[in-house]
Structures are given as structure tokens and as C-alpha cells.
Specification:
Blueprint (H helix, E strand, L loop, with lengths): L1 E2 L10 H8 L18 H18 L6 E6 L2 H11 L6 E4 L4 H10 L2 E4 L19 E3 L13 H10 L3 E5 L14 E5 L10 E6 L24 H35 L4 E2 L10 E5 L5 H7 L3 E2 L15 H5 L4 H5 L1 E5 L6 H18 L1
Parallel strand pairs: 1-11, 3-4, 3-5, 5-6, 6-7
Antiparallel strand pairs: 2-8, 7-8, 9-10, 10-12
Helix pairs in contact: 1-6, 2-6, 3-4, 6-10
Length: 357
Amino acid sequence: MIYLDYQATTPLAPEARQAMVKWLGGPDSEAFGNPHSPHRMGRMAHAAVEVAREQVASLFPAGGRVIFTSGATEAINLALRGAPGEGAIAVSVIEHAAVHDTAQASGRAHLLEVDKEGICQPDQGLPDGTSLVCVMQVNNEIGTVQPVEQWAEQARAEGALMMCDAVQAYGKLPLAEADMIAISAHKIYGPKGIGALWLRDGIELTPVQTGGGQEQGLRSGTLSPALCAGFGAAAALAKARMEDDAAHVETLWNRARDLFDGWTLNGSAEHRWRGNLNLRKEGLDVARLMSDCREVMFSAGSACASGSGRTSHVLSAIGLTVPEAKSSIRLGFGRYTAIAELEQAAAQIKAAARIQE
């Protein structure tokens, strides 16, 4: 099989797997302690968690703290539900459902539009008394890079906080300035089941769940040292390989654009993470295409919405008609994608597409 769905999840890096093994524990191991216990085994586990916290924090702007969560969705909910203020929550129309639906549930959502390139331009006014602005750094469906820095400046000028979903940017690009940043380990070659919320120094949130308050009083529940260790190792590796990974993705992008010459790109080609190639071809039956290319793992949209039958809200937001959106595919590639794999996948996809003509 050829895996081209890196926006949905990434393969676990061998270095991350190795870091986790010790902390999976066993009856003959001393490395299965509860990191919140005061005895020696607990302190050992706690130390492993704190090493991982430092590794994850090293990719954030200076001055802040990392709260481990079960993933970016929990981090986003903590940020939006726990943030101070009762004013509007301004969110771009292309946000992930974790942001969009949480803002809508508050009854205070204000939508920020995007242009046809998929960019949320910071020339839109904010409602008076806005409490929170949410603009993602890299869109998960079309890969467009958003002007988060400008939105953060506008938020500060209005006395609002800025929350950024950096799930698709963390470990790949320098992170934009914000007050709160949500990330997920399994998008950077780390394990599933863990993410984090970074808080700028001085930002105080209200806990949204009750319990032991293990994570700095904001998040309750026993942390997994194994997941933390894997996350930390993946973050350290991403930091060390950021330039090399970006260069490899750039090479893949250029080759993919040549291979899919004649297909239409969805979203900006310039302001984009090159590991995301969202394309459309007139009249393409994507469901049939995926059935005919079962050895190639790619997406008809974001994995979070697959199977819903709904047209992508992101593709609709950039002005695509329903037929255009439904004739679109997303190819995602990264560190472990080989040029030969990409070429084989493209040959299969194009052959299947020609059969439909």
C-alpha cells in the first residue's frame, strides 16, 4: 500500500516508538509508575513526562507553558470553553470542526470569511467586545497558510485573546505568535491519544472538567508517560529535521504538480504547506476513484468528515460548486514518502480517472 494521507495522521517515527517502549512497563519493569505518585517509581515517571514537556515546548514561542491533553480536540475545547470573557468568538470559516463547532456551541460565534485562495485576510472587522479570535495556521484540507500574526495583532488591539490551531503547522513551520496554541502528536510522527495546549505566560483559563487537576490544575486525569515520551521524541526529531523535512516535501510537491498536470489546484499555491495537494478534475467520481485505487491511501476531504456525505465546508468557503468540491481529492505526503511511491500512486490515480472519461 502507498500512504498519501499525512493530514489525517502520520506514521510513528522509529525514534518515538523507541522512546515509548520503556514506559509501557510490565510486571518485571520499574517503568510503569503513575507520574503523579510521590514514591520513587512515580518520580521516575514524572521525570520522563517533564523531559517530554520540555521537548514539546521547545518548538513554541518563548514564554509559555505546555498542558498535555488527549489530543488537539481536547486542547481546543479547553481553550475556547475556558477562556475569559463573554464577547464574540471570531473564527475563520475554514476552521476544523473542533474549533468551529465549539464556538457555535457557545452561542457567540462570529464567522470570518476567506478569499478564493483560501486565505482569511485580516482586513475584516471584529464585533465590538470580541473576546477571542481563532484562526488556524495551516488548513487541514487545502494546506493554506493563514496570516495568523496579523490576526493576533488585531486581536490584541481589540483587547481579545488569540487561539491558533497549529495541528498542521507544529514541527513543520515556525509557529505564529498567539496566546493559546493547540497541537496533536500524531500529526508529527508521534503517537495517537496525546496533544497539548500551549498557553502564553499570564493567560489564565477556567478548567472545563473536574477531577484531580493533575495538569497544572487545568486538565484532570493520569498522564501516560509512554505517550508523553513518544510525543517528546517526535517533537525533538521534528525540530532537528525541520529544514530537511521541508526540503523533501518541496521536492515531492514539485514532482506531484508535474505528475498531475491538467488537474486544478484548490487553494493558494504560494501560501501553502507543500505537503498538502488538494486537486480536482471535472466530472471525477471520487468514490469510484477510491474504490478503483484501493492500494493508495488518500482522502476525498478531511478524514474527520469522511463518510458524512456533506460537501467540504472548506471547499465551499473558497467558492467551489458542489460538483467541483465532490470531484476533489487530497494527497498528503511527508518525511517517509518516497518519490517512487508518489509516482506509482499518481499513475494508478490517473489511470482510474481516465477510465471514467
